[in-house]
């Protein structure tokens, strides 16, 4: 939780969920394949599974507001088991921007300010307080009318979709802990996350890169598998699991198909 002037950063690997209270400044939020003009007080949500960029509008004035980054597990108990990534506030086909009237702006600013104060204390149960305050913010937004996106130019649609796909692909890696298991495992998963039809995604990626979506996914999995085999002592079964393969035999078959070698032979060449 921070009090910041430039209230948003760019989407990055292993990012948190973020909720932002914009108080001043003119900005544009590009969220998946849609864009929003954020030029007045607003509550903005971003999802670590959806690529976004935050652009300051030239001459848009000072940037003032609050930003809070958090994990889904942090809020899990306060939201009674509701999955944030499936909620209306975080689904890719939902709306991430909610404009505020003066009363809502004052109320939410008070909550964010109290979160800052509580975070700075030594109170042993402060995280419970923060969860409760964050859930208040999310429930408040759920009662609001979301902002509307404005149309994107169609001339570079393929390039934009492909760039978003490659950003999402990059965000799945590197795998460094069991918690880093890739969430998006096939072309349909990526299409769902970008709110486009899988055929549109496949056409765009092929047109722009000359490779199919499946080829990009396979190449990245092979690269990550080689890295883990060379630089960790993890059992092959653990590597398979962390790369999203249901069974180690599936991983072995995949790896040999793309490299001509089994995982163990690659790790310990003759």
Automatic annotation (TrEMBL):
The keyword Transmembrane helix does not apply. Residues 188-269 form the HTH araC/xylS-type domain. GO terms for molecular function: DNA-binding transcription factor activity; sequence-specific DNA binding. InterPro entries: Homeodomain-like_sf, HTH_AraC, Tscrpt_reg_AraC-type_HTH. Pfam families: HTH_18. Gene3D superfamilies: Homeodomain-like. Keywords: DNA-binding, Transcription, Transcription regulation. It comes from the Bacteria. This is AraC family transcriptional regulator. The keyword Transcription regulation applies. It comes from Hymenobacter sediminicola. PROSITE patterns: HTH_ARAC_FAMILY_2.
